[in-house]
Specification:
393 residues, alpha/beta, FAD/NAD(P)-binding domain, Enolase-like, domain 1, 5-stranded parallel beta sheet
Length: 393
């Protein structure tokens, strides 16, 4: 009997396992994951969990019936520490080895940290359920919260902390939060979500240190200022979990490098989700959005099975979807599709920038992206139009 090992039990790993079974794989299926908790959905961590509306038990990606249908072995609480690509043998943290005929790498990414902050109480990142529960405990007491990083996670944490009644400051290195993701015009518009809810924005500076002694009390900035803080949340991006592949010969560069069919440089090894930097018509992308972790594993599973069956994976459709992300902040939903550039022109199509709206980005007259705030119907139409343009570009 053949064995396929899926390394990672987050959304990408679970979807990869489901896709293997859907595509007719009937052999041994083993999922390897560091976390002991059953696989769960991550987007609610910065919202429902922090706000006390969920304790995480309702975030499961699979129920008992679905897990039984997978007929998989779950090796939880132990991560992979090495991979021998010649034999596709995994070394595990608990000392075991796992030989496989095929491997799907879905190890995701981890929150980046700031140097010298790990020993101070009150300093948090947000990536796992345990992270969210620890942060929620700290937010249960009155205090001043400083969020370092004004991206989507930082903005959602700021929104939740403000809803809990905290005084909140967001520190962002760029002059405007989300500048690189949304462009200058849209980023300025969305800054008002913070300021309209009495969240202070400190931009164009970096954090140079956190002052304790045991619990954080101040955040020092590159311009010489300092901010009082009882809780600090670091939201400065994520790093792909590829260190365990050092020495394997599998090419990595800000992620596991794959082709359009999710194949790595090692035969019989594919990658999907946050950890994968895949090749596409617009270059090479590593996308940390929920939709990518949901969809990419299907291509990876099909590609791997084609290889194992002696078929040519390049006969399959390439993976080059329309990027899409949403974010819930301050009671409104932001939706973004496409890959707008920083110099693309934003054109309002419906609503008002002062309230809810739908807009498109244009580059050389063509639509390059869509942006909406609390306008799901209009956004759905724009997304369909953009998807058609994306498929034929």
């Amino acid at each position: 009997m053949t064995t396929i090992a899926v390394v990672g039990t987050g959304l990408a790993g679970v979807r990869a396992a489901e896709a293997l079974r859907t595509e007719g794989y009937g052999g041994r299926l083993v999922l390897v994951g560091e976390e002991t908790a059953a696989p769960y959905d991550r987007p609610p961590l910065s919202k429902q969990v922090l706000l006390g509306k969920s304790d995480g038990q309702d975030l499961a990606l699979t129920d008992e019936e679905q897990r039984a249908a997978l007929d998989a072995e779950w090796l939880s609480g132990t991560g992979a520490t090495a991979l021998d690509p010649a034999t596709r043998t995994l070394s595990l943290a608990d000392g075991r080895t796992l030989p496989a005929d095929g491997v799907i790498i879905a190890t995701g990414a981890r929150a980046r940290s700031l140097p010298g902050t790990s020993d101070l109480r009150g300093v948090h990142s947000l990536r796992t359920l345990d992270d969210a529960l620890r942060l929620r405990e700290d937010l249960s007491r009155p205090g001043r919260v400083v969020v370092v990083g004004g991206g989507f996670i930082g903005a959602e944490v700021a929104s939740s902390a403000r809803a809990l009644g905290h005084e909140v400051t967001v520190v962002e290195y760029e002059r405007t939060p989300l500048l690189r993701q949304l462009g200058q015009a849209a980023a300025k518009i969305l800054c008002r979500l913070h300021t309209d809810h009495a969240v202070r924005l400190v931009t164009g500076v970096s954090v140079t240190g956190l002052i304790g002694p045991e619990r954080v009390r101040q955040v020092t900035l590159s311009d010489g200022r300092s901010l009082p803080a009882n809780v600090v949340v670091i939201g400065v991006g994520a790093a792909p979990n590829t260190e365990w592949l050092t020495g394997s010969g599998i090419s990595c560069d800000n992620g596991v490098l794959t082709d359009e069919w999710c194949r790595t440089t090692a035969p019989g090894v594919v990658a999907a989700g946050d950890v994968a930097a895949y090749r596409c018509r617009s270059g090479r992308l590593r996308i940390e959005h929920w939709t990518n972790a949901r969809d990419m594993p299907v291509t990876a599973a099909r590609s791997l099975l084609a290889t194992m069956r002696g078929q040519d994976p390049t006969d399959l459709p390439v993976y080059d979807p329309l990027p899409y992300v949403w974010s819930d902040q301050y009671g409104v939903r932001l939706q973004i599709a496409g890959r707008p550039g920083p110099n693309d022109q934003l054109e309002l199509l419906a609503g008002s920038y002062e309230d809810r709206f739908a807009a498109v980005y244009r580059r050389d007259g063509a639509i390059s992206g869509a942006l909406a705030v609390d306008s799901p119907r209009e956004f759905g139409r724009l997304k369909r139009e953009l998807r058609s343009a994306w498929a034929t570009r």
